[in-house]
Amino acid sequence: xxxxxxxxxxxxxxxxxxxxxxxxxxxxxxxxxxxxxxxxxxxxxxxxxxxxxxxxxxxxxxxxxxxxxxxxxxxxxxxxxxxxxxxxxxxxxxxxxxxxxxxxxxxxxxxxxxxxxxxxxxxxxxxxxxxxxxxxxxxxxxxxxxxxxxxxxxxxxxxxxxxxxxxxxxxxxxxxxxxxxxxxxxxxxxxxxxxxxxxxxxxxxxxxxxxxxxxxxxxxxxxxxxxxxxxxxxxxxxxxxxxxxxxxxxxxxxxxxxxxxxxxxxxxxxxxxxxxxxxxxxxxxxxxxxxxxxxxxxxxxxxxxxxxxxxxxxxxxxxxxxxxxxxxxxxxxx
Amino acid sequence: xxxxxxxxxxxxxxxxxxxxxxxxxxxxxxxxxxxxxxxxxxxxxxxxxxxxxxxxxxxxxxxxxxxxxxxxxxxxxxxxxxxxxxxxxxxxxxxxxxxxxxxxxxxxxxxxxxxxxxxxxxxxxxxxxxxxxxxxxxxxxxxxxxxxxxxxxxxxxxxxxxxxxxxxxxxxxxxxxxxxxxxxxxxxxxxxxxxxxxxxxxxxxxxxxxxxxxxxxxxxxxxxxxxxxxxxxxxxxxxxxxxxxxxxxxxxxxxxxxxxxxxxxxxxxxxxxxxxxxxxxxxxxxxxxxxxxxxxxxxxxxxxxxxx
Lengths: 334, 308
Known about the structure:
The complex is a heterodimer of chains A (about 325) and B (about 300).
Chain A: H1 2-8, H2 15-30, H3 38-63, H4 72-89, H5 93-115, H6 120-140, E1 150-151, H7 170-193, H8 195-205, H9 207-212, H10 217-243, E2 245-246, H11 248-252, H12 254-267, H13 274-296, H14 302-317, H15 321-333
Antiparallel strand pairs in A: 1-2
Chain B: H1 3-36, H2 43-61, H3 69-91, H4 96-118, E1 134-136, E2 142-144, H5 145-167, H6 169-179, H7 181-186, H8 191-213, H9 224-238, H10 243-256, H11 259-270, H12 273-277, H13 286-298
Helix pairs in contact in B: 1-5, 1-8, 1-9, 1-10, 1-11, 2-3, 2-4, 2-8, 2-9, 3-8, 5-6, 5-8, 9-10, 9-13
């Protein structure tokens, strides 16, 4: 009960932030009522998925300051658990998703224990290595379809089917992921005020000091890593039902891992709104650049060049992200 | 002399030769890391640029691919220096996460620029003095001439860079900056210039390696990531910032990449049919990542590392 109250309590934000957030939330709720293209809807679903990924990464990478570039492996575990269970044993999404989360969290404990003995660059590159190993394994593992991947056929599972989360129209997916999104925000709001949240910020600022205050640094990091993993794995399961066709390349590649970290960093790592702002800018930008420059003008790669230049500009000019700019602006006005 | 020993020997030889070429790939990364504590994700993309530089010069001028090394070296040096002054310099103020993602952005930029310019198809060298020739060095081991020449030239380039680092004035200044940045600055060494030099040397050595590799490996814009990860593994094994460490570690990694060959050897020796069913060649690069992970966890400093 106490936790719920804390999760719903946003009173430490300035009123203007809450006003903006509240009106955006209402806008999201009524968005499908307005006329919109299916492309806009798909982009919006992508945005919600990636802001959830970003929120997950934000726990360990933002509050904890541990640069994790291997999150894609948990997208893969979540996605594959749901797909395999649905196709082989006809187990619906709402049961397979928690199972996928359990698998991911178990795997994250197995990896996290040795991983968190490393620091800085070493940690970041080691997370990449673990993710790539898992991807290589999935690419040759016949049980999960090897490199061809798995496909959920609409003939065997006719839409609409709420239990298995298979629909023909995107609107239903939109509302499901929007629900996840709101729950995610409330959870993160609780998390940042929780004991673990404060411990993590202490660890980020000064690890030796945190240890001397009696924080079990190693265990706090592993726990947070598992929380981040659970977020990512959940959305990975959703990804399966939404895309209905998964392969190792588009669930577990390094690009996904980096994109997840980028969301949080662009918006401002270590803040509640950071990942949402980051995803809100990057995802529409990415998909519309692709649509206008890549697909329509037929120039292969130019959208990704622009995208790379944006990444470079952010990391060189404002590494604390957009939220950092906002805060600096506010401090100056005060 | 059975077929099994031949398999073992040829796996050993080809692993070592590949390792010698990889040493030059990793050299650039370890110099850059040693001097300025930045992990360069775009390293494999520099290699890709070197491969294209070698390939296009050889095809455009109609000369032998092995003569294009100076061109590739100059291109790499300029690329490194331009990247430093144009971009990396600004990254240094930021936190580590910004540096990682920044060099990742550079990687994407170079990769898709190459895709835009050269297209996505695989390109390989089909002509040249050594292409397609091979030696029988005895005991049934056949080595392709391009690999042998590439390994030899790679060792020569490695030694040249090592001499530059340890025997010349400017190289010693570089080493001093790597050891202690502020002390070096008090001695009147311009840190800025040394950083740029590290990027120049790092870029030149990796593009030369690229021009060597293109002799026996086809090139496409997406080849970079594989080499980036291999170079990371080598540098981690040898110790970040250690030049001799990178050399020995690259031999080890070259052998790790030949694990499918050793696997065949054991299969023949023990007549184990089940071993033939494992698709070992598709795990070829996975072992490199596994080795990296294990090394980092067991011994984070690497074999010869002095930075931690």
